[in-house]
């Protein structure tokens, strides 16, 4: 199998210890679980639109105002010439294209989990249209919603490269539709309240881990990787004390999952 090329978001150096974008993490964990040889091309946040357009990959989502949302990850398979620009689509592709490599990402399971945010998400985006593995697609959307509603806890800890931090922050400001980086700041009391909300909101998700983890089923599936991608982001961006709290919530199922996925977190 020829090496595939994987595009991830470059943060500060060392890149392999500071990558924190959730959707690239979903794809990286999936690629490593499937034992797919690949190499990483690192792209700074301000350059993502240019790189994606240059590769001829259209955006798969839009901002609330209807403008195109150019993002990563991207996967290019030189054997088939396929270019895939969405984390869920990447998982579907490698599972079908390389069924005999690694494990099955999409074993049948009900995944009965929904989350209604009840308020606007920090960066609202159009819904993705997914026809493959619909139960996993719905699960992905609901997990994204519960974590996205609480990303205000993580934004301040993004490990930006000092050389590109100003540009990267401008991109975050544009995406969120706020006026300045200070709009992401929250005080101590609001932070405590948001942590309480976060723990409560994760309760129904935690109950899927009926055997107290580390996985929803006895074996790893893409459902675990969806959650695991968000946990990787939280690990890189939350203050250490809050990360330890999250790991211990609901019987420690999220800490167990994060630790169990460590073997698939290698950066190539």
UniProtKB/TrEMBL annotation:
It comes from the Eukaryota. InterPro entries: Glutathione-S-Trfase_C_sf (IPR036282), Glutathione_S-Trfase_N (IPR004045), GST_UstS-like_C (IPR054416), Thioredoxin-like_sf (IPR036249). Residues 11-102 form the GST N-terminal domain. Pfam families: GST_C_7, GST_N_2. This is GST N-terminal domain-containing protein. It comes from Penicillium olsonii.
